[in-house]
Design goal:
The chain has 100 residues and is of the alpha+beta class. 10% of the residues lie in helices and 13% in strands. It has one helix and three strands, in the order E-E-E-H. It has a three-stranded antiparallel β-sheet. Strand 2 and strand 3 form a beta hairpin. The protein is globular, with a radius of gyration of 14 Å. It starts with 11 loop residues before the first strand and ends in an 8-residue tail after the last helix. The mean pLDDT is 75.
């Protein structure tokens, strides 16, 4: 895993195409696509159901909670952001404002 610099703002974006396949999930850090190979622990796909969406923790366990702050959360429904859109949001620093 790639370390996160302490006391430094870091932008993460995850896109998911709804395919229920690991390949449908893309992880971006500071606007740059990262390989999802290192993150494939069997829980990197979303199920198509009505289960709650957990952000900053694993829903199946009491361990693995993110201990840092989260700010400017944004969710786009029924569409996948393109790599260009992800980079544009990172460069503008306004992920919480729905530009799209």
């Amino acid at each position: 895993y790639e370390p996160i610099t302490l006391n430094t703002w870091t932008n993460f974006c995850v896109t998911y195409d709804g395919s229920s396949n690991v390949s449908g999930l893309k992880l971006y850090k500071n606007g740059v696509l990262k390989t999802t190979d290192n993150y494939n622990d069997g829980y990197t796909k979303m199920n198509q159901n009505t289960d709650p969406l957990y952000i900053g923790c694993r829903s199946y366990s009491a361990v693995g909670y993110f201990s840092g702050g989260q700010d400017e959360l944004a969710i786009w429904k029924n569409r996948v952001l393109t790599p260009t859109e992800v980079l544009d949001i990172y460069n503008k620093g306004v992920a919480g404002i729905p530009l799209i």
